[in-house]
What we know:
Order of helices and strands: HHHHHHHHHHH
Largest sheet: none
Shape: elongated
Number of strands: 0
Helix content: over 70%
Distance between the termini: 57 Å
Strand content: under 5%
Radius of gyration: 20 Å
Amino acid sequence: MVTANDTQTLWVEYRKSGDPTIRDRLILTYAPLVKFVAGRVGASLPAHVDEQDLVSYGLLGLIGAIERFDPSREIKFETFAMARIRGAIIDELRSLDWVPRSVRTRARQIERAIQALEKELMRAPTDAEIATKLGLSSEELEESLHEISRSSVAALDELWSPSGSGGDQIALIDTIEDESGPDPEMTLEQSEVKEALAEAISILPEREKLVVTLYYYEELTLREIGEVLGVTESRVSQLHTKAILRLKAHLAGASRDRAET
């Protein structure tokens, strides 16, 4: 059994020597993280997506995290690595482009409708208002959300691409690699994003806010959240999808408003 002291010693030795053998021991130590993240990502994907494939994609993220992590910084490796692992999995899934174009298009349409309604109503729009804006029935909107939730890999940690970041995204749980020390500009930017995200979550409808809280903060699975709310796992998935689309719309609108001022 590897103790915390043993792991710390491995980090010190690896940073000094860069020995691939020590790196491999660190990979084995943290391999359970990959399975954990792959399981969480896989829970919102279609059944035909093999979890072992996700583990393989995530392993590349773990290796990258180990090679880039600076143990002298006051950041837990697990936090740093989980963002990297998840990012590697999602990048690979996107490269495979298995999500139907029609589903991606409908997700963007719903996001834009929410954004327009928020600006017009100055509050979170209801499902009925979103459906009307899109020219859909309530049943058609629910079916669209169901399709998006079955194929979507969107989540809170993909929400924000700061201007001037070159496409890099800041995530709620993300940590920023910095080999030479803290970057004041990036630290400020990250703080602003977290504040904007907290504000966006605060105006979600109560049920969606609860799903976000239980999933991301309490780390419950969709099935467990369904048991708490007394609804099916499929319904929780739809609520989660709606919450994410609302948050993306709100943050995109806030970013545009700041750019115009």
